[in-house]
Write a structure and sequence with these properties.
The structure is a single chain. By secondary structure, the chain is α/β, with parallel strands linked by helices. The chain contains 9 helices and 14 strands. Strand 6 (151-152) and strand 7 form a beta hairpin. Helix 1 packs across helix 6. The structure holds 4'-deoxy-4'-aminopyridoxal-5'-phosphate. One of its GO terms (biological process) is L-serine biosynthetic process.
Length: 366
């Protein structure tokens, strides 16, 4: 592990060293099978056991109700933007989107390929820095579903509650905060997340699906077989060759999550880590600034500017940070500035190193 840095990447992102080391130990000869998981048939008994255990661990860790389906699909969260619509629109033509950031905006755009994505709210004009109160949402009782993004990775806006949308099925993109706190799966018709933040390497998405959406009754005719929730469920997420190695690493990460105390442990860590960073921002007298309204601040992705968006100074910050082993702190290419992503793999001491550096940098560059 020599030479590892504190990696604040928004995803793919840092993972617990223990998980990487376990994968390394098992890499070339998995449990005496004489081969790597990378080399195994997905129909082998070893791999079937890995997949079944991974699914069970998803169920355990996320307290998935027993009648819900667990889906493991390739293509990441972006493909889920389309899969949601292709499997959930049914005979309806409209769906509602609560757009509070760039990922929700993309999901909404995808809906318009197959139906009508309605904007129940859209905070783009105020640069995605708030979550409007429910009274301001324009919810259509005839919508096939309401979609929200629980944590906007680029803009740093996080729902601290499950939106109440009445009887319309609720769909959540939890790509960047799934695993960071306990969730109420039963309040959702579908929750999905790309893997590469708190669950493992890139290449897959997981989904928790209410059973009435697993029977194909609301699937559009044009839905590609690979995107079909029914096909995925009927084949236990093995309709085709899955992202085997990614699935295996996810399983190891989930086992680790169980060992450290599950989601309540990660929730505690997320609170502590984000409080450290926001503490420095708020105590900096405007040297560091977070544009997001306090009630909507993300515990996971913290975008910030330096001295009112001084780009030269932000570049200097990013360069000097590396001397302290603090990497990948640049903001998303669409917004610039800085961003610290605090996924589960980022230890508290990494965040303390960051906040110490932020304080020193401020003292030297005020
Ligand atoms: N939704 C959110 C909240 C994300 O953060 C991302 C990726 N950063 C996506 C969707 C898209 O995921 P993918 O790259 O896996 O398609």
């Amino acid at each position: 592990a020599d030479g590892r840095v504190y990696n604040f990447s928004p995803g793919p992102s840092t993972m617990p060293l223990e998980v990487l080391e376990e994968v390394q130990r098992e890499l070339v000869n998995y449990k005496g099978s004489g081969m790597s998981v990378m080399e195994m048939s997905h129909r082998s008994k070893e791999f079937m056991a890995i997949a079944a255990e991974a699914e069970q661990n998803l169920r355990d860790v996320f307290a998935v109700p027993s009648d819900y389906k667990v889906l493991m699909m390739q293509g990441g969260a972006s493909l889920q933007f389309s899969a949601v619509v292709l499997n959930m629109l049914g005979t309806k033509s409209k769906a509602d989107y609560l757009v509070t950031g760039q990922w929700g905006e993309k999901a909404h755009k995808e809906c318009n390929k197959y139906g009508t994505g309605q904007l129940a709210c859209n905070t783009k004009s105020s640069k995605f820095t708030t979550i409007p109160a429910k009274a301001e949402w324009k919810l259509d009782p005839e919508a096939a579903f309401v979609h929200y993004c629980a944590n906007e990775t680029i803009n740093g806006v996080e729902f601290s509650y499950t939106p109440d949308v009445g009887s319309v099925p609720l769909v959540a993109d939890m790509s960047s905060n799934l695993g960071s706190r306990p969730i109420d799966v039963g309040k959702h018709a579908y929750i999905y997340a790309g893997l590469h933040k708190n669950l493992g390497p890139a290449g897959m998405a997981v989904g928790f699906l209410r059973p009435d959406f697993a029977d194909g009754s609301k699937e559009l005719k044009i839905c590609p077989t690979y995107c079909s929730f029914k096909t995925t469920c009927d084949n236990s997420s093995m309709y085709n060759t899955p992202a085997c190695f990614t699935m295996y690493v996810m399983g190891e990460y989930l086992k680790y999550t169980k060992r450290v105390g599950g989601l309540s442990y990660w929730a505690e860590q997320s609170d502590k880590k984000s409080e450290l960073v926001y503490g420095v921002i708020d105590g900096s007298d405007g040297f560091y600034q977070s544009a997001v309204e306090k009630s909507a601040r993300s515990r996971i992705n913290i975008p910030f500017t330096i001295r009112g968006g001084d780009e030269a100074l932000e570049r200097k910050f990013l360069d000097e940070a590396k001397k302290h082993k603090l990497y990948s702190l640049a903001g998303h290419m669409s917004v610039g500035a800085c961003r610290a992503s605090l996924y589960n793999g980022m230890p508290l001491e990494g965040v303390a190193t960051l906040t110490d550096f932020m304080k020193c940098f401020m003292d030297e560059n005020r």
